[in-house]
Amino acid sequence: MKRLRKAAASALVALIFVCALSAASWALSIGTFNIEYFTVSGKGAYVDSDLKELARSIRISGADVLALQEIGEGASLRYFLQRELKGWKYVIHENGSRQNLAFIWNDRKVRLLEGPTPFFRKDSFSWKGQNRRLFDRPPLAALFLDRESARRFRLINVHLKSQNPRGTAEELLYSETKRGLQLLKTSELALSLKGPRFVLGDFNTETVIGTDFPVLSLATGHSYDRLKVNIDHIGYLGVMPDGSWRLEETESAIARRSTKRREHPDHDIIVLHFRWPPSKKTGEPQP
């Protein structure tokens, strides 16, 4: 009898272990990270020791794919990944500034299928009788494949209009107007795409309004520590959250680049960990 109970207990432990492995096998982690004028050359360059700390933070975050903001150039990303994150890949859209948008991903977990594609590059809006460019940093979209579950998903990387808290009333109004119109266009883009998609990045506002997609923000902590605010968010469409969804923050400050008064990079890494919903027919994630 004891032997039977022991065998039954062992079988139960094995079953729980297999179920845990099965649940974990569908996990995916996507995130956003404003690295703050990332470059490995020239003024303000990230040196090799900085890159090592940066890679460590990305690994700790558990991200499989990250939307990046404020990237100087593709060559710097390539050097970083080859040196510190082997097996990772990148794509970037360079717009002639130090604030390019990019994606990096662990190629063992995720594969790029399509893109990246910048949107609304020529869009403008009227401000006091003058035409102004709507997006200085056009939203960047790409289609990815979660290798393990064979699920496709789209990411839309955004870096919306910032504002100077000490600006004049007119400057603040201009920033808020431009950012509001950017949110409307981003929502239009998200609605035009199919399948699971996530809108993630530096929204430069704590309150995201005017969109047709729900937005996840940190419940505790701050994505931008200097002002103690949450301006980095992850929106979603075409997929429903469940109990597996978890949003986490990973500190990204690099000791050599930071002071007691201000951290650099000034944003933290925000990652959403989740599992794909099962198929109603088979109980397995749908391709």
Description:
This protein has 287 residues and is of the alpha+beta class. It has one domain: Deoxyribonuclease I, Chain A (4-Layer Sandwich). It contains four helices and 14 strands. The protein has a six-stranded mixed sheet. It has a six-stranded mixed sheet with strand order 5-8-9-10-12-11, covered by helices on one side. It has a two-stranded antiparallel ribbon with strand order 6-7. The longest helix has 24 residues, at 2-25. The radius of gyration is 21 Å and the shape is globular.
Q: What's the arrangement of secondary structure elements?
A:
Blueprint (H helix, E strand, L loop, with lengths): L1 H24 L1 E12 L9 H14 L3 E7 L2 H11 L3 E6 L6 E7 L3 E9 L5 E4 L2 E4 L6 E7 L4 E9 L9 H24 L4 E6 L12 E2 L15 E6 L8 E5 L18 E7 L12
Parallel strand pairs: 1-2, 9-10
Antiparallel strand pairs: 1-14, 2-4, 3-4, 5-8, 6-7, 8-9, 10-12, 11-12, 13-14
What's the gist of this structure?
The chain is α+β, with helices and mostly antiparallel strands and 287 residues long. Helices cover 25% and strands 32% of the residues.
Task: Tag the structure with descriptive keywords.
287 residues; alpha+beta; Deoxyribonuclease I, Chain A; 6-stranded mixed β-sheet; globular; disordered N terminus
Label the CATH architecture.
Answer: 4-Layer Sandwich
How many β strands by DSSP? 14
CATH topology: Deoxyribonuclease I, Chain A
- Oligomeric status: single chain
Query: For the record, what CATH class applies?
Result: Alpha Beta
Strand content: 25-35%
- Sheet of most strands: 6 strands, mixed
Give the count of structural domains. Answer: 1
Order of helices and strands: HEHEHEEEEEEEHEEEEE
Radius of gyration using CA atoms only:
21 Å
Summarize model confidence as the mean pLDDT: 90
Low-confidence stretches: 1-25, 281-287
Classification by helices and strands: alpha+beta
**Share of helix, binned:** 25-40%
By DSSP (H or I, 4+ residues per run), the number of helices equals 4
Distance between the termini: 46 Å
Principal-axes shape call: globular
Biggest sheet, spatial arrangement of strands? 3-4-2-1-14-13
